[in-house]
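Please decode residue identities from the backbone states below.
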């Protein structure tokens, strides 16, 4: 009991430190930021409760102790398995010769792409250098704090970097990854009338490494069978934050039937 109390106290301290690191690095507007104080607060309450039971020598029934241990192992095990799958998918190489490269949107600050989005666009440019015949779909609508759509900001960045503007298609109404891919599919279907998506169209989805696992499975759920991901570098400071957030994204999209795990 004491070991668990100290463990949860350590988690509380780490959550607090990481929260302030994120605030200092990217501000209070960072998505999913308040998860860390919430988790830290829960761990602190749990630690205090366990310490209280230990110091006051309250007898804890074996059923409770073993149940708590089983729950702890189940949660940690499932989280570790999911994160391992997410990490490995992000390291895979993309297939060459894609018909369409879908670049998923991320935050735009005014009209300037964020670090995460710049990494995605630079990765797309590297792919296009080796696969110049591929069309590009830049996917992302306009969110809070954005003066233009993410799609337009991405197109302007790609064109300024030397990409062929005639090969860039805008999907500028989506607000999340599921809509990015659903709306991109509609664009492709409109251009590829008469072809079967599953057998004809090869897709590469460009996003950050932490996001590839979910993005590829969301694309498969839309009917794309020839689909692979191309992982752009993560932001080093926010890597842990992104991977933890992505776990909940996978759970959410699986629960709502937006993606399949295989």
């Amino acid at each position: 009991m004491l070991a668990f109390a100290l463990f949860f106290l350590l988690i509380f301290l780490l959550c607090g430190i990481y929260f302030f690191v994120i605030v200092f690095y990217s501000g209070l507007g960072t998505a999913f930021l308040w998860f860390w104080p919430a988790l830290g607060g829960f761990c602190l309450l749990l630690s205090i409760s366990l310490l209280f039971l230990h110091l006051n020598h309250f007898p804890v029934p074996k059923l409770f102790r073993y149940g708590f241990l089983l729950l702890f192992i189940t949660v940690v095990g499932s989280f570790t398995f999911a994160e391992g799958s997410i990490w490995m998918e992000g390291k895979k190489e993309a297939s060459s010769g894609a018909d369409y490269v879908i670049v998923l949107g991320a935050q735009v600050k005014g009209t300037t792409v964020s670090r995460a989005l710049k990494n995605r666009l630079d990765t797309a440019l590297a792919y296009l250098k080796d696969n110049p015949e591929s069309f590009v779909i830049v996917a992302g609508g306009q969110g809070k704090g954005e003066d233009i759509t993410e799609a337009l900001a991405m197109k302007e960045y790609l064109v300024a970097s030397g990409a062929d503007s005639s090969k860039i298609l805008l999907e500028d109404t989506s607000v999340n990854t599921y809509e990015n891919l659903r709306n991109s599919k509609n664009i492709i279907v409109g251009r590829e009338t008469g072809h079967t998506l599953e057998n004809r169209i090869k897709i590469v989805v460009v996003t950050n490494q932490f996001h590839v696992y979910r993005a590829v499975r969301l694309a498969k759920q839309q009917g794309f069978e020839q689909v692979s991901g191309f992982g752009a570098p993560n932001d080093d400071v926010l890597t842990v934050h992104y991977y933890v957030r992505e776990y909940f994204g996978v759970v959410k999209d699986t629960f709502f039937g937006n993606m399949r795990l295989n």
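Observation: DSSP finds nine helices and seven strands in the chain.
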